[in-house]
Amino acid sequence: MKHFLTALLLLSLLFQAGCARSTPDGTSGPQAESPQLAYEATFDDGAFSPIDPGAVCYDLLEIRLCVLDEEAAKALFFPEDPILEENSREDNGRRGYNVRGASGSYLHITNSSRGKLDSDLYFRTLWYQEMFDNLVINNPADMGSFNLNNVDDLPRDGDLDFAPAAEAEAAVRSALGQIGCKKLGESMEAVIVSPLSRETLAFLDKSNPRYDFDYETQEKIQIPLQSWGKEDECYYLSFQGQYGGIPFSREGVKYPGPHIEAVYSPRGIEFLCILSPFEVVKPGQPVDMPDPAAARELIAGKYDKIILPYPVIIQQVSLEYVMPSSGAGLIPSWRVIVNDVDCVTDEETGESFSNRHHHLLDALTGKEIVWTR
Q: What are the CA-CA distances from residue 227 to residues 16, 154, 206, 279 (Å)?
């Protein structure tokens, strides 16, 4: 409906512009230069992510959730930290478990059952909450805050003085094994292991203003810049699942895709977030590898049918497994990252803003993957 209304508006504008060029005697008057009313979708160079030559594509991957071990997680994260609060609650097929230690560390676990597929784990220390929270932004493309991501600007190579990068990665994988996700930890790829020196931390702090919220005044309050020392240097890690050489999409339709983030410092794991800890239990039938050229033609064809009031750039297209809203395993899809250029204008300042978002297309049928009940 949105595109239909846009088309009507643009046709109306074209009609009015044509009338305005006619003189009273019916002849054509001076032709004023008209603004561009329609644009085309274009592809960035290198928009298509390369596919591993040894990858095997399956029509379906059957999955199951890891059961997150509450007692093991408590022992891992609070070895010498007196427990101040511990509680659990079961509601609508989900069990929530919370632990808070004297040091200020906090752990939350959700284990789902009865066919639900949204288990998760969240752990953070007091240092993470007070110093690091929201310093690195790495949101999936199905969130509006995807436009705020700064993760692509992080350094990707190098070791810090307190430990090599390999130690940080091994520590996270070991933690996953201890809390019931050993197979998941072995299959996840560390797509980002970023060494954050105190200089890099200070730069991120300055370039990314952070805010707290005062619930009494209902006002947003900017957090002052921190003082970063050698003891604050750490690694930021991001893990992505994969099977047969094809990654799992972080974006989902009904449930988020599997993803793990962590921060590792001289004190150990300061932060660990696990979303949708799936394990593949059985692959379906192998299929021919989806063709990027056919995907490009499919995507271009969809935009050719739309009158675009602003430039659209296809920034990234990657073959990834995603869970459709049916929840019946994972299917191969084309994950398409799109940038709508200068699509929103601030009425007060006149400044234009772009918006990055995504589409998911079934890589076997070409149909868009959308929410269905």
A: 60, 19, 11, 41
Dump the DSSP string for 320-343: EEE--TT-SSBEEEEEEEEEEEEE
C-alpha pair distances (Å), 358 with each of 136, 144, 147, 312: 21, 11, 11, 12
Both structure tokens of 243:
């099977």
CB 105 within 8 A of CB 80: no
pLDDT in tens, the chain (373 residues): 333 333 333 333 333 333 333 333 444 444 444 455 578 899 999 999 999 999 999 999 999 888 999 999 999 999 999 999 999 999 888 899 999 999 999 999 999 876 667 799 999 999 999 999 999 999 998 887 888 899 999 999 999 999 999 999 999 999 999 999 888 888 899 999 999 999 999 999 999 888 887 788 878 888 899 999 999 999 999 999 999 999 999 988 777 788 999 999 999 999 999 998 988 999 999 999 999 999 999 999 999 988 888 899 999 999 999 988 777 789 999 999 999 998 888 888 888 888 899 999 999 999 999 876 5
Prediction pTM value: 0.84
CA distances from 214 to 34, 129, 145, 293 (A): 49, 16, 21, 52
The string of DSSP letters for 172-234 reads HHHHHHHTT-HHHHHH-EEEEEEEE-HHHHHHHHHHS--EEEETTTTEEEEPPPPPP-GGG-E
